Amino acid sequence: MTAGTKDGSKKKGTKESPPSAVDKEDEKGRPDYIVETHGITKRFENIVALDDISLKVPTGATGLLGPNGAGKSTLIRVLIGLLNPTSGGGTVLGKDISTEGFDIRQRIGYLPEHECLILDMDAVSFCTYMGQMVGMARSDALQRAHEVLHYIGVGEERYRKIQTYSTGMRQKIKLAQALVHDPDLLLLDEPTNGLDPRGRDEMLDLIRSLAHDEKKNILLSSHLLPDVEYICDNVVIMSSGQILKQGNIKEMLMASKTVLSVRVKGMANEEDAFVKELEKAGLEAELEKGGNVRVDAGKEERLTEAYMDVMRAGAAVGIQVRFVSRSARSLEDLFLDVIRAQEKGGHK
Amino acid sequence: MAGPPLPIPPGVSTSPFGWTGIRREKYTRWKGKLDGRDKIVRRMITEGVRFNMKNLGVVALVVLAWLFSMLFPVLQAGMGGLPLEADNPSTFSGTESTAVSMHLNITNTSVAVYPLVGANLTYQTKFFTEKVPQGWSAAINVTPDGPMVRASLLVRPPVNPAPFDYAWINVSAETGGDRGRQDTFSTVTMVVPNPMMALDQSAYQLAFAKSEFSGKAGDSVDASFYINNTGTVTDSYEVTFRGMASHWKTEAYINGTKATVMTKEVGPPGMPREFRVKVSYIMVTVQPGSSALCALKFKTTADSPAATAINVGVKSGNDMMVSGEYVTSIVLKDTKKMDLTGAIFLNSVMGIMPFFALLLAAVVGSRMIATDLAEKSYNLYFARPLTKKDYIIGKFGTVSIILAMVTMVPSLICYALVLMLTSISNTYIIDHLWVWGAIIGYSLVMILTFGTMSLAFSSLTPRRFYAAAAVVVIYLVTAIVGQIASFAFNSDYGRLISLGDDMNLMGMVAFQQMADVTLKFPWYDALAVLAVLWFVCGFLVWYRVDRTELSE
User: Fold this and answer.
1) Domain closes at, from A230, A248, A266
2) Distance, CA of A123 to CA of B499 (rounded, Å)
3) Which end of chain B is more exposed for a tag (fewer CB within 10 A), N or C?
4) Is A108 part of a structural domain of the chain?
């Protein structure tokens, strides 16, 4: 294995090539977590951009979710070895982020958030060039450029200069250059930024296909919850340089509170009495617009009991319970819960 | 053997090119091998050059540079009209001799005849007389004798001269106006009342026989002359040799017998030692009516400068009139072929190249980093296995190669073609290996200057037009300011500001044309100015790139 130095360069005297992207030993020895960090802190003078970040990103697609300024891009720069953390450390694809930046950057594909294309080039030349910049021979890079451009759906336009492309096409070219060397991990920073609805759908389908059909490891940084929810199995929620929550999306939703939506018919004072009766039964209830009552049922296993409590409360205040349904929880609910909890001081 | 085509799994898109999707197990050619940093940087340079050479403007500039620099010299060489080396007009060749009798006693009716010069020269020799006293006459008879010139000075006393009246007449001989050879010697003619006294005379004759002299270490030049004692008593002559550097050695033979060469210090009496000069000499004793053949061999033990003067003096021990005043000298000059290679390459071949290098630096170099800043493509470079140092090397390498295409490459090719097409002496190629180095050295000066300057401006602005304009403007402004400063301060040092003058001076040093340099500052001052420019520009590029981070 090639040793690296802090700036990502190979140690003097080591002439062997960097590890192959399809190295079988590497396949066998691939760690459970593609990214693993321990207490990473990054300070820029008085600003704490990352505050004690410890995370474990499993294989598959993971969303890095957070509002603007949450520290997502800084975390990516630290992970690919372009910024040294002030303290803490970690690994990406099993490589140390402080000393093996070269190996890491050779095995990842990065789609930056901003415009970054060489506009005077055509798509084929550009992707070929980017493949060579990772270490591919020109002929191999040229072949792969055609393959990935075809894969992402760029036809004969690939011979046109990039400056003539639409925003959606340019975004696809950015994805192609990240894919050209078949990286073990794709880092996608706001890939749907600036796209119209159709372009956004195409891009999301492409990334989803990469994640689910091609089994690519993806770390998707976005502030758009539906994008993350559509593509990713796992999520890391960040805010103000801290990790607020991380884990499998489905499991997190399952583990969160169960909500019942109850529609009742009765006088206004009866609805208030109904809510109070529910609270007496130990349930959190909230009267919503239109006479619906939102009941927090707690854990999943309390669902039946909560249902019985709703029915009992209705009977007690003499109100007609017309409809009870389990409300579907989304990532947005989860995200808002987490953010609210942080604002209340629930998180560090 | 190739097996049957692999089945395409359902859901995998197929390519019209016969490749399958992006799945690594279906790669038709690439097996996932990735090379290290050194190859990546090399490819960055190669692709940079390839990309720029797709630009018609760049190609046009390169083609024009090749045409302007190579076409005429190569055509001229092909037609046999490119003189890489020529006869040196300031070089003596063949043999020549100087024969002088300096002191003659005559009676009042006789005529003194001084044999002057017998020369085998390719250039005409002219004689002049000076200080002819009133009443005396001095005439010079010149008789061509094949390639030789025989001449004599006839000194005639006035009618009824007073006893012991004398004429001290100087004679100068110029051989070829541009050769710089000039001999001056004096004659003293005295009227003696007794015809017998006219026989009591001392004289010597010098005859230098000189073969071709290269000035190289180990080479030698021979001189021989006769000392004729035409007097009536034995005379002891002191023969001195002066003007030689310490690495010159002298051997002397008198009538074939090796003589001891001694040294002594001469100079004004009572003056400190540093005012005294060390002189080599031999003593030659000649019987009356006899002559002695002095053969001298001057040998240099180290490479000598282009011109060396050796003064040989003969002083009679008996007659004060034959003294150290009567010294003749011979100037030996380097007989190497006059070398025109440096002048041709500096002026004809590479003279136009700074202009094209400047334009290419403005077109290509200025966009190198500026475009990345404008398009934020540095994000892609820095997210790849490249350090910022690699990035700078890659960018500078690209500019350097493109600049080399209008400087170093055509010059080297032109020199090779000219060597093939021109008739040159056998030793020319070996003697002129330095030309390859001069071409490379001068090209590197241009590449470093324009390359670093264009990259520095390119790193300062995302607008490549501004960077290009800055490169051209700075070059022109330094030239103008240099001239103004030179006039204002009445000093050539003002020209140090001019990058063009500094580079040109480097070219003159490289191509050994320092004799033509009119600037009054040493070349290493110009090199220091350029080195400072390279360092400052390099630092600027490093500073700017080092502080460029991935976009937030």
Assistant:
1) A248
2) 41
3) N
4) yes
